[in-house]
Design brief:
The structure holds three protein chains of three kinds.
Chain A: H1 2-49, H2 60-91, H3 94-99, H4 105-133, H5 145-164, H6 171-187, H7 202-207, H8 209-222, H9 227-256
Helix pairs in contact in A: 1-2, 1-4, 2-4, 2-5, 2-6, 2-8, 4-5, 5-8, 5-9, 8-9
Chain B: H1 16-20, H2 29-44, H3 46-52, H4 54-71, E1 73-75, E2 81-83, H5 84-116, H6 118-122, H7 129-157, H8 169-188, H9 197-210, H10 222-230, H11 232-245, H12 251-278
Antiparallel strand pairs in B: 1-2
Helix pairs in contact in B: 2-7, 4-5, 5-7, 5-8, 5-9, 5-11, 7-8, 7-12, 8-11, 8-12, 11-12
Chain C: E1 10-19, E2 22-32, E3 37-41, H1 48-55, E4 63-68, H2 73-82, E5 84-87, H3 99-109, H4 114-127, H5 143-154, E6 161-165, H6 173-188, E7 192-196, H7 200-206, E8 209-214, E9 217-222, H8 224-231, E10 235-240, H9 246-252, E11 259-262, E12 267-271, H10 274-283, E13 290-295, H11 298-306
Parallel strand pairs in C: 3-7, 3-8, 5-6, 6-7
Antiparallel strand pairs in C: 1-2, 1-4, 8-9, 10-12, 10-13, 11-12
The chains are: A mainly alpha, B mainly alpha, C alpha/beta.
The structure holds adenosine-5'-triphosphate and magnesium ion.
Chain lengths: ~260, ~280, ~300
Amino acid sequence: MASAALRSLEYWAYQYRRTWRGTIASSFLSPVLYMAAMGLGLGSLVDRSGHGASLAGGGYLAFLAPGLLAATAMQTAATEATWPVMGAIKWVRTYHAMLATPLRVVDVLAGHLAWMALRLLLVSAIFLGVMAAFGTTPSPWALAALPAAALTGMAFAAPITAFAATRENDAGFSALFRFGIIPMFLFSGTFFPIGQLPAPLRPVAWVTPLWHGVALCRALDLGTATAGPALGHVAYLGAWAAAGTVLARRAFHHRLAR
Amino acid sequence: MSTAPQVTTRPPRGTLVARVLPPALLGGRRAGRLVERNLLVYRRTWIVIASGFFEPLFYLLSIGVGIGKLVGTVTGPGGQVISYTAFVAPALLASSAMNGAIYDATFNIFHKLKFAKIYDAVLATPVGVTDVALGEISWALIRGTIYSAVFLLVMAVLGLVGSVWALLVLPVAVLIGFAFAAVGMAATSYMRSWQDFDFVQLAVLPLFLFSATFYPLTTYPPALQVIVQLTPLYHGVALVRALDTGAVGPGALVHVLYLAVMGVAGLAVTSRRLGHLLLR
Amino acid sequence: MPSDPAEPLIWARGLCKRFGDLVAVDGIDFEVGRGEAFGFLGPNGAGKSSAMRMVACLSPLSGGSLRILGLDPARDGVRIRSRLGLVPQDDTLDLELTVRENLYIYGRYFDLPRKVIRERADQLLAFAQLTERADDKVEPLSGGMKRRLTIARALINEPELLLLDEPTTGLDPQARHLLWDRLWRLKQQGVTLVLTTHYMDEAEQLCDRLVVMDKGRIAAEGTPRQLIEQWSTKEVLELRFGPGEHEALAAKLGGLAERIEVLPDRLLLYVEDGDEALAGTHRRGLRPDSALVRRSTLEDVFLRLTGRRLVD
Ligand SMILES: Nc1ncnc2c1ncn2[C@@H]1O[C@H](COP(=O)(O)OP(=O)(O)OP(=O)(O)O)[C@@H](O)[C@H]1O
Ligand SMILES: [Mg+2]
């Protein structure tokens, strides 16, 4: 079983060999650009206003960096779990080709999810490297933010894979991004503490997996993590990933095993 | 290309102006047909178009409740002190005009060119290559204008409009859209596969982040300021912000000229390149 | 300025199409008169579609000259295309639209008034037997249905000149006969037809005149009857032997036929009298698994002009 999933994973890795240039460039450049523009540029305004000191990390750049790490994992996951999944079902029909071999539906799914996890690790590792270069990894605990970011990503990748596998075309994806991913990016604690949200909206932010991912990555990066809340975040994110996997498995069976 | 005497089935090369003026000015009936086609398609998926409006709105709200509170106030283009939200809102309008135009002119056009092969059928009719380019750009502009109008309305409701000059924001948003749509389409005509679009995003993101969108130009060291002033979105942002805050000076004409030249150049390249791509 | 009815609708001299180093059409001359049905035959890659695309003003010439409806495609592409109907080899339907919308928007591209399009669309849907699917998306239609829609679409502007690149490929026999009938009626109404096909029966049925193309050149030209008379014999004897024996047996049949064509599954003997040749075969002690005497067809001309070398 494991070896079969490995073969399906191999396919995605092989595909990636043709496209890695562009994605590596963007996984490296977009954190650099965001850190420079929002962290340094906008950060200088925030810090000058005197509000920076009250933020976790003691300055806007330090506050923002780990939040962006988690948010980037979310965006990578959402991209990898939408169009490629739909493509493998409908356009390129990769899954069908795999299922014509001894691979089973679960192997196909496991291989693809494993591939997404690898991509998330890679993107997050590059991001952490950029953070280090900007001097925003104050403690060795920052290394633990790497698996935390990947877990945050999987909390999105698995359920979105399940969603993508039920779609007939990609029209739903733009809605997913516009009404799910982008609002979370903007309101789940990446750019400002959610305490600033109007009180009725705060529980909404707490429910989003991204808020847990941001909080976890931020605490680990700044070295302020405490066991209780950290484990709580991990459990919450893990639950999303697990539930997503179960749903994805059901959706794949429904769609592919006909 | 070949040395044959006849290498084109386009109409004779008129003046550059005749080839690039917007279709409305030339009675561009045939370009309008492409718009009609897109309307037919989007009649069913209007919700996708409608939802596109929310993205800049979310950004505006996020800045209003979040970052704006952290920053407080900034010095506007005329030297007056304004709220951070009022500072960023016009820049978001300009950026979303750029984003919408680029998206339409790259992803959408590439899809139609390479996969849906819409134009292969179109060009067997009296509609020509230049009509196609003009039609698609017009479509992108129509969409963009609607978005900008709604966004401007929201700004007005939130009290973020500081001057009657803001009425001119709408035509300026169209100009920004035209400049980026034309250049975007020209770039698309050189694209070989979806992978090349990673580079589109790599070009658009720094424009979005660094064009004095989120903080005043003076935040940069002087050398960087010069570089930023050479990039296109900066001119869009500066123009919309000047109109919105009422700090309009003769410099505005420079911005207008920059964007207009960019659009005309993009369109000239586009209609030549599309001919090579489609009429083989 | 109406064009002179006497002058050819298409007039091509030394027509060339190159793609880089590859010469797809290598200096061909042909003319098509008003009301004629003109066919291009030829093996895959012969250059038929490339020639058609130049006539459709979709592809600039690499050399030679071309007049369509008396106009120059380089200068008057728009005017020519507005009087032309094109069925390209690959369907270029708009997959994001419905069947009816495809006809509608295509008509709009020709600047037809909406009311006119609506009337014509109903007729064309009936002709393409797609009335029931009129409001379905195009994407899930079967290959043959899409082909019929492409053909119907090409008629929306009531063209004077209809270009059909392999119109019936992928159609079932019934749909093919229906299309032949429709094309024949269009021809009665004075529409000029230019088509390419791989079906010899189609060419024989529809075309007044044919050219056989091979490697970018015209190998022969004439009416179907003329071509058969000129390039084949009156009758053909088809012989089948066991697998793998044909090449060797062909040598033993030398002298019996004007020409022998060795195909993978059978031998074709080109003769004036098939029964006589069959008797001759038996006299030489050969016992074919099956034997058939038939009249020459265009297929034989095609084999002769574009197939393998003769054994004789
Ligand atoms: N757009 C193109 N770019 C490069 N080469 C081309 C192009 N179109 C056609 N060719 C080449 O020109 C030659 C003639 O092709 P064409 O399509 O005209 O042949 P055809 O007679 O229509 O063949 P078929 O019966 O297979 O349709 C082929 O070698 C083909 O590869
Ligand atoms: Mg062909």
